[in-house]
Amino acid sequence: MFPLRFDVGGESVEVRVSTVLNGGYAGRSQQDVAAHVAELAELGVPAPSRTPCLYPVAPYLAMQTDEVPAQHGRTSGEAEWALVVAGPGERDVLLTAACDHTDRDLEVHGVAWSKQAGPDVLGREAWRLVDVADRIDDLTLTAWAGGDRIQRGTLAELLTPHHWLDELRARDLLHPGTVLLSGTIPMAGEVDQFADSWRVELADPATGDTITCDYRVRRMPEPVA
């Protein structure tokens, strides 16, 4: 199991990660999701058999890091929120900012494979879900690729954390050590997603509080083969 540490209102909370799941095609409007699936199919990305999707990935891919190594120039992030189950109680479910770094070349061969090729980068701060649950739809997600804003939206665009908690409970996955990423919001097509850095911000307009995760993308040496 792989530990993550979060600052939760000044308290340090350590979570030993045992299960990581990535939500996909997780827009609140499944009609819009269907249109997005059709657009991706035209680009060669295989359509899922159902939506929303849930992709298990290796636990070591959940990271708090300042640098992501990339094997080529066509990898990029996605602005997401993450649920982190830190303990058995309702107050132990944490919410933080996250960025799902994905191999876009591999994605056309299989979305599940592409999720295994890059890390899920999480913020170092978190909120208790119960403390923001009454205004969850007002929270905002923003992402910058190489300094240019590429994503901006609210959590109202995505399936709710409580939807995913119910899904985890039904699948007997709601246990300490589980991390779930939400799926993402639309990207601005005019911004180059294949940038040398990514930054995601989860913000609460009611309090002005923000949680961020940001990292550099470092190209690995070419293989010798």
From TrEMBL:
<dbReference type="InterPro" id="IPR036663">
    <property type="entry name" value="Fumarylacetoacetase_C_sf"/>
</dbReference>
<protein>
    <submittedName>
        <fullName>DUF2848 domain-containing protein</fullName>
    </submittedName>
</protein>
<dbReference type="InterPro" id="IPR021269">
    <property type="entry name" value="DUF2848"/>
</dbReference>
<dbReference type="Pfam" id="PF11010">
    <property type="entry name" value="DUF2848"/>
</dbReference>
